[in-house]
User: Fold this.
Amino acid sequence: MNRRSFVKAVPALAAATQLNAQSGLKGRLRPGLVAYTYRSQLETKKLSYEDVIRMVADFGLQGLDTTVYWFPDTSNQYLAGLRRTAYKNGITLYSIATRVRLCQPSAELRTAEIESAKKWVDVAERLGATHLRVFGGSVPKGSTEAQAIELAVETVKAAAEYAGSKGIILGIEDDGGLTTNAGPTIEIVKKADSPWVGMNLDTGNFPKDGYAQTAMAIPYAVSTHIKAHVTNPDGTKDKADFERLFGMLAKGGYRGFVSLEYEEKDAETAVPGLVSEILKAAARYAA
Assistant:
């Protein structure tokens, strides 16, 4: 499949200085894309990761969160090739997303997750990424939420000790199970008490009151995903207000990538328009 068929004209980051002056807020918000957006195309090999990197550049975005599920391998040769493609296209491969799940009921299972995290930390280092996404995991049967948080903290602290030695930050995503909502996710981050642990904030994953939960999470965010929709207090969904989200992030002092993760099946047609909106919002708060 020709990657150009995916790309429509989108506006560049124009007049950023003027827009920033108008907003009265300064940020370092860098627009990017989460590779999960093109999961179907990566799974069927209609697109390669090299194609996605070039698409991100063509869109006018700056970074790519590389979901590892569709790496054909993690050899030095393959990762070096991705780094070269990214560099030649001016794209930062800033993050890798893994299936590591922190909360496990037994010491053996926690050790296994720690070892998995270490493996992916090494991959991140070779890819040149500084962030690794992990999940909170499920609350074990018979455990309270408070007990589950302690189990997750035990795992993430051990993983962070290794990650920190490599300069890699672990971001815990709000994405179901123990970390469905902002409160428990933040609690894990706070109890981990490590400069190498933060929150991979996903503004579209909260089941209710997405903007309020996002506001709670911003001080702990080390990476941010935005989706096409955000939940209302009653759990219904409306189209995400990207201007509002970028403004919240800037006002909250967040600095880093803000990447689109599109979960519907019509990415080929929907993403270019959403990218246009994101670039406009990012320009307002670009430093």
Remarks:
- The first strand starts at residue 28 and ends at 34.
